[in-house]
Amino acid sequence: MVSDQELPGQQKVRSNSWQSYIHATQAQLSLHLQVFQDMLRTGNKHISNQMNNKI
Fold first, then answer.
1. How many CA atoms, within 13 angstroms, populate the side-chain half-sphere of residue 35?
2. What's this model's pTM, rounded to 2 decimal places?
3. CA-based angle 12:14:16, to the nearest 5?
4. Could you tell me the CA-to-CA distances from 6 to 28, 36, 37, 40 in Å, in that order?
């Protein structure tokens, strides 16, 4: 059995690493989102240019 005195410290470490993991994931996701939005923006420009050329 683990003594009660050891638990709070371990939980703190675990939650800290979990929080830092979440922060890293959020940063990565927002970066991917920006790239994806840029791709959509340039893709939409490209599509609208092609449409205009056809007209």
1. 6
2. 0.48
3. 70
4. 34, 45, 47, 51
User: DSSP of 1-55, one letter per residue?
Assistant: ---TTTHHHHHHHHHHHHHHHHHHHHHHHHHHHHHHHHHHHHHHHHHHHHHHHH-
CA distance 43 to 45: 5
- Give per-residue burial for 18-33: e unless 16+ CB within 10 Å, then b: eeeeeeeeeeeeeeee
Q: Tens of pLDDT along 4-53?
A: 555 556 666 667 888 898 999 999 999 999 999 999 999 888 878 888 88
